[in-house]
Amino acid sequence: MLTEKYKNHLFTFAETPYDDENEPYRRRWTKEINSYATNYNTFDISLAPLVDSLFNGNKSQLKVIEAGFHKKAIIASETDPYTLDLISAIDDGKLNSKGNALLVNPKRNHKDWAKHMKRLIENPNMVEDLGERLYETVKDKYSLKKVCQDRVEFFKSIIK
Asked: Could you report the per-residue pLDDT of 49-71, keeping only the tens digit for each?
């Protein structure tokens, strides 16, 4: 799906400018803390692979929250911490209307990542629907107003 020239550029792993606007895949490099989230404006689908391990199970689901606030569809590993907020939109091959993501069972890594990517490429409406559902999942639960309110209540409870 990629042009030969772009493939060669990607394999250099060089952080040099490249006009990838018309490419189906765009590599995005890490940015400074005050601007890294702007990368979400450059793609439609967020990929969040994670090895199922005790260490990773104790990480935050920040990628999920960021994708949700940016209304991006997400394909993620079906493992903690992502399963705290994500609901699979595909259950046993059938659409789940309550789903807000496409999840990949670690035992099916070898084929479901590509299958889900293809599904979203061929169904742009699904990309938009999943992004909206994920936004609805995170917008109230993780808003700064709600998080700060919860912290105030917690601090009040331990001061007593």
From this structure: 999 899 998 999 999 999 999 99
Classify residue 64 as exposed, middle or buried by CB count within 10 Å of its CB (0-12, 13-18, 19+): buried
Q: Is 69 exposed, middle or buried (0-12, 13-18, 19+ CB in 10 A)?
A: middle
pLDDT above 90 for 15:
no
Phi, psi values for residue 6, rounded to 5°: -70, -40
Show me where the domains of the chain are located. 1-30, 31-159
**H or E segment and range at residue 61:** none
Which helix (H) or strand (E) segment holds residue 102: the answer is strand 102-104
Question: Is a pLDDT exceeding 90 seen at residue 78?
Answer: yes
**Any residues with CB less than 8 A from the CB of 41 and at least 6 apart, and which?**
70
**Topology adopted by domain 31-159:** Rossmann fold (3.40.50)
> Which pTM does this prediction carry?
0.82
Q: Which of 134, 7, 156 is nearest to 82 (CA)?
A: 134
